[in-house]
Amino acid sequence: MARKSKVDTFSSGAPAGDALVWLSSLGLAVGLFMITMILAVIIWQGLTAFWPREVAEVTVRADSEFTINGAQTFSGEIVHYKTRQDYTKDNKTEVEELQLYVGNRDVYGFSFFYVDVDDIIKIEKPADIMSIEREEYGKAIARPVSLHIKGETSVSADSLEFDDRLRALMDTVAERRDEIHDIEKVEIGRINRKMESIRLSRRRMEREGHTDSEKYRKLVDADAGLQGDYETLAAEAGALRDLQFEHELEVMLLTGEVRRMPLGKLINYRYPNQLRVIDKCVAFAHNMVSFILNDPREANTEGGIFPAIFGTFVMTIFMSLLVTPFGVVSAIYLSEYAKPGLMVRMVRIAVNNLAGVPSIVFGVFGLGFFVYFVGASIDQLFFSDTLPTPTFGTGGMLWASFTLALMTVPVVIVATEEGLLAVPRGMREGGLACGASKWQCIQRIVLPAAAPGILTGMVLAMARGAGEVAPLMLVGVVKLAPTLPLNTTWPYFHFEQKFMHLGFHIYDLGFQSPDSEAAKPMVFATALLLIILVVAMNLVAIYVRERLRRKYAVSAV
Amino acid sequence: MKSVNHAVDLDNRYDAGNGVVSTLPSRDKMTIFDSEGGSMEAQRDSIRPEAETASAATGRQQDSAVISIRNFNFYYGNKHTLMDVNLNVPEREIVAFIGPSGCGKSTLLRSINRMNDLIEDIRQEGDIRINGRSVFDPNLDVIALRKRVGMVFQKSNPFPKSIFENVVFGLRVAGRIRKDELEAAAERSLRAAALWDEVSDRLHSSALGLSGGQMQRLCIARAIANEPEIILMDEPCSALDPVATSKIEEMILVLKKDFTIVIVTHNMQQASRISDRTAFFYLGKLIEFDTTEKIFSNPNTRQTEDYISGRFG
After folding, report:
1. What is the DSSP string of A77-141?
2. Which chain B residues are within 8 Å of A555, Cβ to Cβ?
3. Is the peptide bond before A388 cis (omega within 30 degrees of 0)?
4. Which among B159, B224, B231 is the top mutation candidate for probing chain A, defined by the most A β-carbons within 10 Å of its own β-carbon?
5. A19 lies in a domain?
6. How many domains does chain A have?
């Protein structure tokens, strides 16, 4: 009896708000679920893009409509099974079909082939099928026939030495490819830059009428010398290139065609059905590393994405370097010096609203102001020799970084202001009481104590800036940039140059590439890398912030 | 008639003091008999008879006054929080400000080194002089003033820096960078604040790792490092336990040899233990200012007696 009355005392009778607690936790759960799902999809799809797939030899019924060039037997990597709605048949509307990556685009004209599962009479995984990665046309999937080595009789694929010889020749070819790349990109590039600067000097002298001077003659001689050097190098590269075509690999497609491919065009080969799990893991790691470190090939649908990773990284860092001081200085003025009132309130509202302006608007502004106005003015003043070819008067790393800095500055201002407000009043008073001026107080006490808040702003700005695509398309991102914005050529930083960006790369691959089906794994892999890059940069900033926070921990007293 | 007498009385007193407070004797007079002049005096007398007692006490100490507060009024917006305060702090003495919360003693303290400048919407009337120079002089360098008048706050407020950097902060902002000079100053100040023995082996670790009492002594060391003439202390022991409090009290008594100290305290025993003179404030008015002995044994007013005996406040 007594116990019952006690219980009654504690239950008030009014609803305790449990339902609302559940509702709010449900909201969080849904959010978390969606984030987890999107991450899971991207990680799974991104990683499976690198996993080597087995190749199936598929044979279809004699009366099947699913033949390639009339052949009933063909091969391809099994991409997946899916169901399709078939409206042509009366009794059955759902048909299960198999998607194959058949490769050999140079022969078939397509890379993917769909075949109805009902039509398949046999699926085998023969061990002798070779999957060859090439410079052009995607992979070749075929049976090797023989290796034609110049000056020797050909080596048959059945012979024991075939694999060793092929491996050795492929290695030589790969080394030679690097050599050619060095000559063409590095050495000839250097000569081209020298010739360009001589051309500009000559043009200037011609305009000023100094064509008979000693200096002009020297320039002409130097130009001729460089021309000679260029020709020597070009010939050297040409000779190396010819060597790449010496040896050939003869293969037979499962549909019956026989092809001879020069080894110089081949990058790598595998027998996918012979791979053990450990081999697959090695191949997986190799694919991933080469994806990260290599330049793209074939309209970006093959090869790696290193220039895009690098471009994103450099741009994000450069943007942070621009936005942080600017935002911090603005925030200091707003919260420490400006007299609170209507004006400051309006500025603050404007700053907050700036964060909500669609990013494409910033892109348009960046194009109009930075590129066409500031950039063109710089060209007029300092690079008039090269006009009409613009130097700064066109999109580039510099203007892209400025545009994104402008876009993210509200984030930094808001976070910094919060950081400044959190510095206890007593600390400022202590500084002033020690005879520090207001600025000394801010510089030596308030700013260090607010540093974690400032870094939070930087993290948010980086997160927002790194993933932004729309404005970049207007102010300097390109599908394929010939050189990196930061390289070994003087003056090392080429911030006027256009660059590649992971975000734009995703858009380009997914929506602008000729074969979107082939690009799909690349899209996921690129998205995964973009996420990893942003997370990694944020983690570094957070690590720095935590260190600062420990160092400048505001006392609890 | 009364007001005239009073004015003459004050006048004489200041003339008498002229010989000693030699810096600006005529200005002293001017502040008091400025434009508002007699009528203001009359008004003050009519509403506050006890003010005379207070000024009588201050007057006697005029000859060695370091801080002299004259007819000081303070307004927060429309709120009149200090009314006609007149008070002299003699050199190398400890003066305690006591009184119930909200009586304006902290405000007065913060006006001495112009820390109230940071607060919006305030108005100050009257004058506070340090060695004869008004702290409200528009030509006065506030930074130089704050170097001469150090301050210790109720809440210890060490900077998020090392112990060493905390102590030499004032010197650093003054542009002193010689390492040996800074080290000597740090040691001297920490010794004076009775903290040296406890922290000498970890000068370069964070000040935020110290205990509450140590932090407060660090803040005192920081104030001493600037070599001020005056140290203002705003309830320095209110957040400390009795052991830390007694350490700081001992230290303050030693500091008295070199500095003039004004201390705001809620702790009656503390005021009686350490101060030479005590000022009792109530509702923005200086009720009584006299030697501590007098205040605690034989106060002139009923209010003071009630307060120190704990009957209110």
Report:
1. EEEEEEEEE--SSSS--EEEEEEEE---HHHHS-SEEEEEGGGEEEEE--TT-EEEEESSSS-EE
2. 158, 160, 208, 215
3. yes
4. B159
5. no
6. 3
In this structure, what CATH number is given to the domain that contains residue A313?
1.10.3720.10
Residue A21 covered by a domain: no
Q: Are A398 and A279 in the same domain?
A: no
Same-domain pairing of A438 and A410: yes
Same domain, A418 and A546: yes
Contact A141, A55 (CB under 8 A): yes
Q: In whole angstroms, give the CA distance from residue A506 to residue A524.
A: 8
- Its ipTM equals 0.74
Q: Are residues A380 and A439 in the same domain?
A: yes
Its pTM stands at 0.75
CB A133 within 8 A of CB A139: yes
Contact B115 A433 (CB under 8 A): yes
- The reply to whether A329 and A435 lie within a common domain is yes
In chain A, whose CA is at the least distance from the CA of B224?
A434
B121 contact A CB<8A: no
CA of A512: how far to CAs of A2, A110, A139, A224, A474, in Å? 77, 17, 21, 43, 16
Any domain includes A30: no
Q: Can you give the residue range of the structural domain that contains A63?
A: 51-149+254-294
Kindly state the DSSP code that residue A200 receives in the 8-state scheme: H
Among B113, B159, B206, beta carbon nearest to A427: B159
Greatest CA separation for chain B: 68
In a domain, A206, yes or no: yes
* A89, A129: one domain: yes
A227 and A263 inside one domain: no
Query: Which ranges in B61-195 belong to alpha helices (H)?
Result: 105-112, 142-148, 163-167, 169-173, 179-192
Among the partner-chain residues B118, B173, B239, the one whose CB lies closest to the CB of A434 is B173
* A435 close contact with B: CB closer than 8 A: yes
- Residue A170 shares a structural domain with residue A63: no
pLDDT tens-digit profile, chain A (557 residues):
445 544 555 555 556 678 888 899 999 999 999 999 999 999 998 888 888 888 888 888 888 888 888 888 888 888 888 887 777 766 667 888 888 888 888 888 888 888 888 888 888 888 888 888 888 888 888 888 888 888 777 888 788 888 888 888 888 888 888 888 888 877 887 888 888 888 877 777 777 777 777 777 888 888 888 888 888 888 888 888 888 888 888 888 888 888 888 888 888 888 888 888 898 899 899 888 988 888 887 777 777 888 888 888 888 989 999 999 999 999 999 988 888 889 999 999 998 898 888 989 999 999 999 888 888 888 778 777 666 777 777 778 889 999 999 999 999 999 999 989 888 888 888 888 888 888 888 988 888 888 888 888 888 888 888 888 889 888 888 887 777 777 766 677 777 788 888 888 888 888 887 777 777 888 898 899 888 888 888 888 888 888 887 776 554 33
